[in-house]
Amino acid sequence: MTVQMVTSWTNGSLSRRRALCAVGASALGGLAGCLAAGSGGSVDVLSAGSLARTVEDHVGPAFEADTGIDIHGEYYGTNAVMRMVTDRTKHPDVIVSADATLLQDRLYPEFADWDIAFAANSLGIGYSPETEFGRRLDGGEPWYDLARETDDGDLAISDPELDPLGYRAIQAFELAEREHDLAGFRDAMVDRVYREPEEPQLMAGVETGSRVGAVTYRNMAVDHDLSFAEFSNPYSFADPALRDHYASVSYTFDDDETIEGRPILYNLTVNTNADNPEAGHRLVQYIVDNPGLLQEAGLTVGEDLPSTTGEVPEAISL
After folding, report:
1. CA quadruple 108, 110, 116, 121: dihedral, nearest 10
2. According to DSSP H, which parts of the chain are helical?
3. Are 123 and 221 in contact, with CB atoms under 8 Å apart?
4. Is the dihedral of CA 143, 144, 149, 152 positive or negative?
5. CA dist., res. 214 & res. 87, Å (int)
6. Number of Cβ within a 10 Å radius of residue 55
7. What span, in angstroms and rounded, lies between the C-alpha atoms of 178 and 23?
């Protein structure tokens, strides 16, 4: 598989957050939390691009205010994240995946021997209700009928070679074809959609009007304040009870590796060779202890989460 950089949020984002924090705290008459930010070291996070705003706008500011530890986050397609770790082109403390099995398959046992699944998501179409596509979708017309009427490039998906969101979109097309008896639907959509190489930019085209919609995760539509038409359970990849059904479809990468469909599940771990494992453990603990921040960002945290694989370090309590 080709690894391509998606997007990187660097210290500029942190400076922006500190400035916003200072302004907000001043207005409230209390600067203590903001003054703590940046005073307790930092933790380097390499994460799935679909969580860029979840970390930068929700988890990060709260964690930094509460602990004084800065988050230095970089965000790419999960396939690229795993390759960067195994190729040692990136050396993060905390690694976050949008496909729990992918992290385990790629990083165990050299770079990790445990992980925690902490959130779920659902697949659907993010769109603007102000477009004809959006108005018709809001009017009750099936998304798949509208999708078949779109011109080339009107609908976007993430690049499946870099990102689970991309290959899940293609798998969803195949499951929808079966569910609604749409002969040739998968192949027609694969040929028609625009493949966005930068996952965090997937919704930008919808915002500007250059795309009528994008196959995306619910939280990414929430991030951009766009409408979201969630796919039905047979192809939303949101129902753990349909694990076997999702596994009936697959995607084959350019290097001939094949990956089966599975429920959307985010997990994270601390790199075995982390420079700052203590800060990494504190961030993991903070994430599992604050599901409300994840739900606020549009993710799902059910009763079965968090769940663990391997022997979680004693520094983390569940």
Report:
1. -60
2. 11-28, 32-36, 52-53, 60-67, 78-86, 100-107, 132-138, 143-149, 164-180, 185-192, 204-208, 218-223, 233-236, 243-246, 277-289, 291-296
3. no
4. positive
5. 31
6. 25
7. 53
* Whether the Cβ atoms of residue 270 and residue 277 lie closer than 8 Å to each other: yes
- From CA 287, how far away is CA 66, in angstroms rounded? 12
Over the stretch 203-235, which tens digit does the pLDDT of each residue have? 999 999 999 999 999 999 999 999 999 999 999
- Domains of the chain (ranges, CATH numbers): 7-120+264-310 (3.40.190.10), 123-260 (3.40.190.10)
Long-range contacts of 134-138 (CB under 8 A, 24+ apart): 134/212, 134/213, 134/227, 137/213, 137/227, 137/229, 138/227
pTM: 0.86
Q: Report the b/e string of 67-95 with b at 16+ CB within 10 A.
A: bbbbbbbbbbbbbbbbbbbeeeebebbbb
DSSP conformational letter for 182: -
Of 51, 50, 45, nearest in space to 10 by CA: 45
Q: What angle do CA 101, 75, 72 make, to 5 degrees?
A: 115
Task: Look at phi and psi of residue 163 and say left if phi exceeds 0, alpha if psi is from -120 to 50, else beta.
Answer: beta
Q: What proportion of the chain, given as a percentage, has pLDDT over 70?
A: 87
Burial class (CB in 10 A: 0-12, 13-18, 19+), 165: buried
Across the range 124-137, mean pLDDT stands at 96
The CB density around residue 290, as the number of other CB atoms within 10 Å, is 17
Q: Which amino acid is at 139?
A: G
Q: Which residues contact 12 (CB under 8 A, 6 or more apart)?
A: none
